[in-house]
């Protein structure tokens, strides 16, 4: 019997508690409507101090703005921040939130005229003229390459001839050196035979006799060359006379 009647006794209590809760909530809301905000300097300083303590990163305000995606400086800190280039950059990065007038992003009449003047001086030729110049330059380079290839081919064809001439020169120098060495040895032997006994080549008498023999040898060689030239001239004259007689 008691089990069946218990919910009936509990229901009024539940409804009463809900009514009291709703009444208390309404009173709290009405009370909150009349809360006053203290905007004095002390309160603002206190709020600023609280915000400073919340900033555990210890970043500068400009760096915090960068991390938060805001313009780093609200006011100009240097003369660079007053330039048109800097303000255009800020508007391009942050848009209207940067506070920059978008008119600054467009070139002025003066800028356009200066740019046109610069392009007229820096790029005086039209596209067609530049293409013709580039084609002419390519043709000249190709001609230079072809000429260089022909020179290389010609020199390569003469390579064997040059090698033979070089080897002949080397052989001639070696033969001349050997002949001079043999001549020197022959003169030394003649000087030794002249004295009839073994003498040190560094001896003064030996050196004097050797110089004398060398002088005599040079004189004989000179006479031999002279006779050879005379014989050659006589042969040419005889050949010339024979040619005249045949005519």
TrEMBL record:
GO terms for cellular component: mitochondrion; nucleus; ribonucleoprotein complex; ribosome. It is found in: Mitochondrion; Nucleus. The keyword Coiled coil applies. Residues 131-240 form a coiled coil. Its main location: mitochondrion. Keywords: Cell cycle, Coiled coil, Mitochondrion, Nucleus, Ribonucleoprotein, Ribosomal protein. Acts as a negative regulator of G1 to S cell cycle phase progression by inhibiting cyclin-dependent kinases. Inhibitory effects are additive with GADD45 proteins but also occur in the absence of GADD45 proteins. Acts as a repressor of the orphan nuclear receptor NR4A1 by inhibiting AB domain-mediated transcriptional activity. May be involved in the hormone-mediated regulation of NR4A1 transcriptional activity. May play a role in mitochondrial protein synthesis. Belongs to the mitochondrion-specific ribosomal protein mL64 family. This is Large ribosomal subunit protein mL64. It comes from Arctia plantaginis.
